[in-house]
Model the fold of this input.
Amino acid sequence: MAQEFHVGLDVLTGERPLMAHSPAGVQQPAREAGRTFYIETFGCQMNVHDSEKVAGVLLRRGYRQVNTPDAAALVLYNTCSIREKAAQKVFSRLGQFKAGPDGSKVIGVLGCVAQQEGEQIFERAPWVSLVCGSASYRKLPELLAELEAGNRRVTGLDTDTEETFETEITRRDNPFRAYLTIIEGCDKACAYCVVPFTRGPERSRSSAPVLEEVRQLADVGYSEVQLLGQTVNSYRDPSPRRLSFAELLVAVSEVPGIHRVRFTTSHPRDFHRDIVEAIDSIPALCDHVHLPVQSGSTRILRAMQRTYTREDYLEKLAMIRAARRPISVTSDIIVGFPGETDQDFADTLSLLDLAQYDGVFSFKYSPRPNTPAISMADPIPEEEKGRRLAVLQERQRRIQTARNEALVGQTFEVLVDGQSRKENQWAGRTSSNRVLNFSSPHENLLGHYVQVKVARAGPNSLVGERVM
Ligand code: SAM
Ligand code: SF4
Done:
């Protein structure tokens, strides 16, 4: 069962907030004295948020966050192994410390590559001292204490846990949207996916600490929260309250000060009418659902062990489209899964036409260690995967352009979260998660909600004018 905990927020470090995917600049001034850390994050939103929590644990121990590996005594890479390319990136980052160790820096590998490669990382990069998978983050304080005591190598690689990673302080890097993990791990067994191996079994947090954290976020000024989980809608409240996922959404959106509630990623199998009804009746629940289909062919969905057919998926979609409020739907698609024929691929293209997604993250299938798909017959050549990906992306680009053009003339509320270098240019997100750029002579709109009328549309963003 999840532990009770208290959350402190946004500890000031005296450094600029570290943004995810910040490049590892190594040509920096000399290392600052004291306990300093640098953390670079690869991969999904859950990794980004895990890094915020790891930073919280370190700040609590008296470390200070810095913006370059060169300035840090402790350098951490929070890694992703969902596709091979992502996993390779960390080894290229580690390569820059090959000349070491000079005893002045501790290097750590966290996250999915750490879990997947385990102690082999010490063989490939002997200058690494810490290897810890996400299912063992609750042990981080002990592991850090061992490092501080002079231990040369420490590992946290268990996955057989029922606990979630609770921290006293979470260092949040996004000033406008606060991320909150409500369910960790995954019990689905998609044939291509490393997540069940790298993140361990599904563990939901109790609703009371989730709601307490949301209240604290509202108190420090956040109005938008995003609930996270690999399959967020598989949430099961382990406390006696037994809130369903839809009931939790309602409870979160009722917290005073919370204006927008998002959630990602939803698994089609656990997506039920009560979620649509909640979105329909509560304006604070954003009108966007990320519902990855992965393939439009029932034959391939079976091989992928996705637990639904093309028809089942289209029924869920019809339920979403029947809502009183238009709800934006986005998806993930894999092309070139082993055995995918031209007809299977054509089925995926025809599903795109039927689904009319507002956005798609599309990937070439990447064989991953430990997964059932790695030994499946009939792999698709890389070149053919690339061709299918290009065809799919072009088809989706046209769909998105048409869908966005249909919004010209409509007015949306946006939460302003970006300012362009060009004077008076701002960017914000609609409730449906579309990027809407606009101009306004006002001094500082960051963090404000404003009304913007759409004047032009492209495939990936909208341009408009502020409505006063
Ligand atoms: N849990 C989410 C779900 O079930 O949709 C997403 C998890 S994963 C971090 C994000 C996406 O990566 C997946 O939806 C899938 O499209 C893609 N993905 C996962 N494993 C992959 C693989 N081996 N090759 C290519 N894409 C992959
Ligand atoms: Fe991976 Fe499937 Fe779990 Fe998503 S639901 S994390 S794709 S195993």
